[in-house]
Amino acid sequence: MGEGKTLPTYLCRNCENPLALGEDLISKKFVGASGPAFMFSHAMNVVIGPKIERKLITGSYVVADVMCGNCGEKLGWKYVETFHLKQRYKEGMFVIERLKLTKKL
């Protein structure tokens, strides 16, 4: 019997605060302000800012900025609401920019 693959924990690159678990990683194919970004179904130890309407690559959304709960670094955003049926799967998901993360196995 083979051993299961160990999934990483994703940490804030600035202060190493744990932010997300590997099992919650949905996609690595997102783009943030600083480049590549990851979508997670859950995030922890974060502060969620006020809801704002923002135009993104795939349309208009209501989002909230997401900051590290320890150091305050802006990490990405949370999708709160979408106006397009095909994009509804994003609601409640977190997008965190790759440059803001480090990982630990």
From TrEMBL:
<comment type="similarity">
    <text>Belongs to the yippee family.</text>
</comment>
<dbReference type="InterPro" id="IPR039058">
    <property type="entry name" value="Yippee_fam"/>
</dbReference>
<dbReference type="InterPro" id="IPR034751">
    <property type="entry name" value="Yippee"/>
</dbReference>
<dbReference type="InterPro" id="IPR004910">
    <property type="entry name" value="Yippee/Mis18/Cereblon"/>
</dbReference>
<keyword id="KW-0862">Zinc</keyword>
<dbReference type="GO" id="GO:0046872">
    <property type="term" value="F:metal ion binding"/>
</dbReference>
<protein>
    <recommendedName>
        <fullName>Protein yippee-like</fullName>
    </recommendedName>
</protein>
<dbReference type="Pfam" id="PF03226">
    <property type="entry name" value="Yippee-Mis18"/>
</dbReference>
<keyword id="KW-0479">Metal-binding</keyword>
<feature type="domain" description="Yippee">
    <location>
        <begin position="8"/>
        <end position="105"/>
    </location>
</feature>
